[in-house]
Design a protein that fits this description.
- This protein is an alpha/beta fold and 282 residues long.
- The protein is built from twelve helices and seven strands.
- It folds into two domains: 59 residues, no CATH class; 201 residues, Rossmann fold (3-Layer(aba) Sandwich), CATH 3.40.50.
- It is 50% helix and 13% strand.
- Helix 6 packs parallel to helix 7, helix 9 packs across helix 10 and helix 10 packs parallel to helix 12.
- The chain starts with a helix and ends in a 12-residue tail after the last strand.
Length: 282
């Protein structure tokens, strides 16, 4: 029995020189831990996230690695680009963003250089906590580049993975006023504009064929602006052919809320005058 026990002990616990040899053999075979194998298998697997073909994560959006010997994942560098493209598609600005950028804005005159500078300053201030209440509004002359600059601002915001919604006032206000007697439908239509992180309202208070602004227009404008005014974490960008003074005359409560959120610096007023409409120059 003692002889058998001695033989078993040698089998179960090999001599020291054999143990060293076995360890070297395991190292030479590049032995992988279970965690290493899991990370490798994860990185080799294909994903199915659409919108961009990434060789790094193979369209999974994540990359596996070891942290203190344990399997974990981190976001792939492709994800900001994916979010930008998704947000751009959902913003309603996709076609305009191709046309209107800061680079192709024609700043030939001092007034153009001033509003372009302030628009760029708004972009740089966007993430600052002390600017959290700021909106930007461009009022005044038709064809003066208000939509161009406001769209360019939205493009930069989208590049930073923020969500932007576009509201063409004349079209969307017509739909909303038509649904005002159907409370459920009306609430469904206006909800995205009230709650979106960044809302760009183009041609604010513009009516068909320059008709008089109705009580329905004013009520809708106040409801939307007042809701966003009371949500300090949201941003609103507005372009309008109305001057700021005209908006105050239409409804002082509406104008004062816009003014408070913009501050004087980001309330861009483009006066009417000869040569302001660049569309007439083309």
């Amino acid at each position: 029995m003692e002889a058998i026990a001695e033989i078993m002990a040698r089998i179960i616990t090999p001599p020291e020189h054999l143990r060293e040899k076995i360890t070297e053999q395991l190292k030479s075979r590049n032995f992988k831990s279970r965690e290493e194998a899991s990370a490798e298998n994860f990185n080799e697997a294909d994903g199915d996230i659409p919108g961009h073909d990434c060789e790094t994560c193979k369209n999974k959006g994540k990359i596996a690695y070891l942290l203190d010997g344990y399997f974990t994942t981190k976001e792939c560098p492709c994800m900001p680009l994916r979010r930008f493209r998704e947000n751009m598609d959902g913003s309603g600005l996709k076609d305009l963003l191709k046309l209107y950028t800061f680079d192709n804005y024609r700043a030939e005159h001092d007034w153009q250089k001033t509003i372009r500078y302030r628009a760029l300053k708004y972009v740089s201030d966007f993430e600052k906590e002390n600017e959290a209440l700021k909106w930007l509004c461009a009022f005044g002359a038709a064809g003066s580049g208000k939509t161009h600059l406001c769209t360019a601002i939205c493009g930069k915001i989208l590049e930073n993975s923020r969500k932007v919604s576009y509201m063409m006032w004349r079209e969307e206000s017509t739909k909303l006023k038509a649904a005002v007697n159907d409370s459920d439908k009306y609430a469904e239509l206006i909800k995205p504009f009230k709650r979106t992180e960044v809302l760009y309202i183009d041609d604010f208070l513009k009516t068909k064929k320059n008709a008089e602004i109705s009580a329905g227009d004013i009520n809708l404008a106040f409801e939307l602006i007042n809701h966003r005014y009371n949500m300090p974490n949201t941003r609103t960008i507005i372009s309008s052919e109305k001057s700021f003074g005209e908006i105050l005359n239409i409804d002082e409560a509406l104008g004062s809320r816009i003014s408070q959120r913009c501050g004087e610096y980001y309330r861009l007023q483009i006066s009417q005058g000869e040569g302001k409409n660049w569309r007439l120059k083309t």
